Amino acid sequence: MINETHDTYQYLRPKSDSFSKSDFIIPGKEPIDIILELNHLNAINNSLLGIILDLNKDQISKGLCLVVVKSDITDFSERDSLIVVPTLGEAKDYIQMAKIQRDLGF
Fold first, then answer.
1. What is d(CA 70, CA 45) in angstroms, rounded to the nearest whole number?
2. Strand locations in 18-98, DSSP E?
3. Which site from 33, 37, 61, 69 is most exposed, i.e. has the minimal number of CB atoms within 10 Å?
4. Structural domain of residue 37, as residue ranges?
């Protein structure tokens, strides 16, 4: 798992499609928006989708967002609550807009 902390978000990129929810836990860190890059994975299995949906619920409950980077969104049949964008640049833009909205009280 690639796990990098940036000023306004946490960047996560799993090395394979086999990981657990504990891979996303960032001990001792303040809650922060998360960008999860999955473009390198061919398909999203049900186990991974469940972990992503759980992580998304956790982020929403904290008033933060999870942005998934995946150019092919057909893997996300339950994507109603997920924010899925095709590029890392768009994910960064989304995080920036979400932060502005929070700062303005929306």
1. 14
2. 33-37, 66-69, 83-85
3. 61
4. 2-104
Question: Are 24 and 5 within 8 A, CB to CB?
Answer: no
Predicted TM-score (pTM) of this structure: 0.88
d(CA 67, CA 30): 18
Distances 73 to 8, 51, 55, 79, 87 between C-alpha atoms, Å: 25, 17, 18, 9, 12
Number of domains in the chain: 1
Residue 31 CB: number of other CB atoms within 10 A?
A: 13
Q: Which residue has the tokens 């090395």?
A: 15
Q: What is the CATH number of the domain that holds 20?
A: 3.30.750.24
Q: How many Cβ atoms sit within 10 Å of the Cβ of residue 17? A: 14
3-class DSSP state of 39 = coil
